[in-house]
Write a structure and sequence with these properties.
By secondary structure, the chain is mostly helical. It is 63% helix and 5% strand.
Length: 464
């Protein structure tokens, strides 16, 4: 059993206890971060005169060699070590001798793992943001190409008022834009370095924590050593943000599933993102959308898990906190995969514009505009509301739309109707006269697209 401690103990740990305690089978994912943090630490130790320049060079060369060998497959991370930290340190000592034993000077595994996890999460926040950026690019393209693609808007899953596909996609753009901003906030809040906090009370060695933080791109060192090793707020924030992303993807997936149904036929999902049935040859199933919807619960579970783990832990570090990693690793991979696959599906979907427009026509989505027409003719709104309600009932009985009725039929309901009503309640008019900020009218949508393209350009520049 390869471990970094033992002097206090008179016999070996029970094998089952050791295996239960070990974390290398999952924390080996932090290998890159462990090497990065160790290199920064020893560079600082040499700067402060705690180790010699020769020792620093030997340790850095040894760590770099271990990293190269693992990446090339020459060296395998063996799971008979307790954790990734003990693996790296043991291999270092094997390669360079006693100098390797000085790498851990002024450091505890508590601040070491806190650093590794922060470095990992910080990098993943950037990757998830890039995935969302690609999805936003797809959405803005659909919006630009569908300013006059009319469709029914819904409330209570019932047709409500006419809108456009651009407007509908724009709603999801705003959701995912907020997700990007949330991730940016998380990055800023978490970007402080815990290395040098020690087990929880700092160290007597003259460490330069600000220097170490700067070497790894942090804003600065954390300001309380107890909080440094006990803090997992940034993981909770990330998992909450990932849960929100998945909630948005799940809502979108639900609509994709509905729109793909025979009853709607608003879309055709590309064959590359569909599957068939083992028994029903006619089926073309929206499996990606359904899996995204299903995996949302998995990410929610990760958030609830870490919240439950942390809720009863006294300061400072406790072994319970080892449970933060597996759920976080899984949630991050799940979310990235879901965003990428959903974006692939969305970017290849064919929208059936004619069917969407016909659906808006047949769903009385222009009823509110018909009422507004009467109001503009001097009818009190409450009376106009009642008139249009009777008109809709008449259309239902005749299996007709308001637009399809003759002017004589309209006048039987209300003599106020004139021939100009047909233009007033056309889908084009209903949409185009809605010009307030955020509305589906073309001028309002063009302004929203302009603002959102500037947002995308800002993200692109930050990435570069």
């Amino acid at each position: 059993m390869a471990q970094l401690w033992g002097g206090r103990f008179t016999k070996e740990t029970d094998k089952l206890v050791y295996q239960f305690n070990a974390s290398i089978h999952f924390d080996k994912k932090l290998f890159e971060q462990d090497i990065e943090g160790s290199i920064a630490h020893v560079v600082m130790l040499e700067k402060q005169g705690i180790i010699t320049c020769r020792e620093k060079d030997d340790i850095v060369k040894g760590l770099t060699g271990i990293r190269t060998d693992v990446e090339s497959g020459k060296l395998t991370i063996a799971e008979d070590y307790e954790d990734i930290h003990s693996f790296v340190e043991a291999k270092l000592i094997e390669r360079i001798g006693d100098a390797g034993k000085k790498m851990h000077t002024g450091r505890s595994r508590n601040d070491q793992v806190a650093l590794d996890m922060k470095l990992y999460v910080r990098a993943e926040v950037v990757q998830i943001t890039e995935c969302l950026h690609e999805l936003l690019e797809t959405l803005i393209t659909i919006m630009e190409n569908n300013l006059t693609t009319y469709m029914p808007g819904f409330t209570h899953l019932q047709k409500a008022q006419p809108t456009t596909l651009a407007h509908h996609m724009g709603a999801y753009f705003e959701m995912f834009k907020r997700d990007v901003l949330r991730l940016s906030d998380i990055y800023k809040r978490m970007n402080y370095c815990p290395l040098g906090a020690g087990a929880f009370a700092g160290t007597t060695y003259p460490l330069d924590r600000s220097y170490t933080a700067s070497l790894m791109g942090f804003e600065g060192p954390t300001l309380n050593s107890m909080d440094s090793v006990a803090d997992r707020d940034y993981i909770i924030e990330l998992l909450a943000s990932l849960s929100t992303i998945m909630m948005h993807l799940s809502r979108f997936s639900e609509e994709i599933i509905i729109w793909n149904s025979n009853e709607y036929r608003f879309i055709d999902i590309d064959d590359g993102f569909s599957t068939g049935s083992s028994i029903m040859p006619q089926k073309k199933n929206p499996d990606i959308a359904e899996l995204v919807r299903g995996k949302t619960g998995r990410v929610y579970g990760a958030l609830v898990s870490i919240l439950t783990t942390m809720k009863g832990i006294p300061l400072a570090y406790n072994k319970d906190m080892q449970e933060d990693k597996e759920v976080t690793f899984d949630a991050i991979e799940t979310v990235k995969n879901c965003i990428v696959l959903f974006n692939g599906m969305l970017s290849t979907i064919k929208f059936n514009n004619k069917i969407m427009e016909e659906s808006a026509m047949k769903g009385f989505t222009n009823a509110t505009d018909a009422a507004d027409y009467l109001v503009n003719k001097g009818v009190p709104f409450r009376d106009a509301h009642g008139i249009i309600g009777r008109l809709v009932l008449y259309c239902i009985e005749k299996n007709s739309s308001i637009d399809a009725l003759s002017i004589e039929e309209l006048k039987e309901i209300s003599p106020v109707f004139e021939a100009d009503v047909y233009d007033a309640i056309s889908l084009k008019t209903c949409v185009e006269k809605r010009l307030t900020t955020g509305a589906p009218g073309p001028s309002a949508m063009k302004e929203a697209i302009k603002i959102n393209k500037e947002f995308l350009e800002h993200i692109r520049n930050k990435d570069n």
